[in-house]
Amino acid sequence: MFPIRIASLAIGLAASVIAQGAAAQAWPTKPIRLVVPFSAGGANDGAILGADVVAKSAPDGYTFLVSAAGVVSNSMIKKSMPYKDDALVPVAMIGLAPSVIVVPANAPYKDLKEFVAASKKSGGGFHWATAGTGSTPHFVEGILETKYGSKLDVVPYKSGSESITAVLGSQVEATSEASIVVLPYVKSGKLKALAGTWTQRISAYPELPTAAEEGFPEIRIAHWAGVHAPRGTPDAILDKMAAAVDAAMKAPATVERLKGMGIEPIGGTRASFAKFVDEERARLGSVVKATGMKED
Q1: CB pairs under 8 A, 24+ apart, for 39-45?
Q2: 104-162 per-position pLDDT tens digit
Q3: What is the predicted pLDDT for the residue at 154?
Q4: Which domains are assigned to the chain?
């Protein structure tokens, strides 16, 4: 899972912030706790519990959340939430891994357009694996159906790794998963990639066109990781954390390492991350409404 892979980087960012602050005898004067609420299985429940811990922590600059898409979408699909969305404030974007739509290596479709056309002819007989309700693959499926008329039958698995295994074994026709997860299978010929789902091609696999380039501009989604803080954390602290994340994402060694793994380093300002979160909330909310997506 993408956030798990990036957790070690987030911990390193906290260490760099501590080192910068120590000389000035300002914040931080003690270790910073970064809550990484993701299990290897990828369940959203762990993300909600972890986010709740941060949301209810003292806003003193010593507890942060390594956040992902669920911090935006969970409240849209869950029957109840232990915290309000505005209890957490965006601090900085770390990076993102575009989702990649994949099919078995011997699938007859050469691109996404052919896959969508074939699914329509199947009358709903195409099975699409997801990592559970509200997961990124579930949103990709929802967009394909509501915006482009695909006929897909969702098969929910417990994790992205299980859904990939299902595609490898031709138990389902397709799924989408983070570039960092699927690219090794694609490059080795074990899976066929049809399209990337972000606005730009993947640095580690530039030969793969985006869905927009193939005529599906509404498919714009990625697995991302950022930093959120409890509401009320002083702006000066949030600005300093955001600056540290941005600096780390621009460091040549970090850029080379992440891009080689299929992750696009982002960084940026607090304002740019807040804008991204707001746009994600609006876009994903429209998919939830169109599909009627709710927790099981």
Answers
A1: 40/1, 40/4, 40/159, 41/158, 41/159, 42/1, 42/131, 42/132, 42/135, 42/158, 42/159, 42/160, 42/161, 43/132, 43/158, 43/159, 44/70, 44/74, 44/132, 44/133, 44/134, 44/135
A2: 999 999 999 999 999 999 877 899 999 988 999 999 999 999 999 999 999 999 888 89
A3: 95
A4: 2-96+222-291 (3.40.190.150), 98-196 (3.40.190.10)
The whole-model pTM stands at 0.90
Q: Which helix (DSSP H) or strand (DSSP E) does residue 34 occupy?
A: strand 33-35
Which two tokens mark 226?
Answer: 């950022």
20 has a pLDDT exceeding 70: no
Output the six-digit token pair for 248: 């780390």
CB-side exposure of 128: number of CA atoms within 13 Å?
27
Per-residue CA distances from 9 to 33, 35, 48, 100, 254 (Å): 14, 13, 21, 23, 9
Residues 42-94 have pLDDT tens digits of 434 478 999 999 999 999 999 999 999 999 999 999 989 999 999 999 999 99
Closest to 51 measured CA to CA, from 73, 31, 29: 73
Determine the Cα–Cα distance for residues 196 and 228; give it in Å rounded to an integer: 27
Question: pLDDT at residue 41 above 50?
Answer: no
Strand 175-178 to strand 88-104: parallel, antiparallel, or no bridges (unpaired)?
antiparallel
Nearest to residue 155, comparing CAs of 178, 176, 136, 132? 132
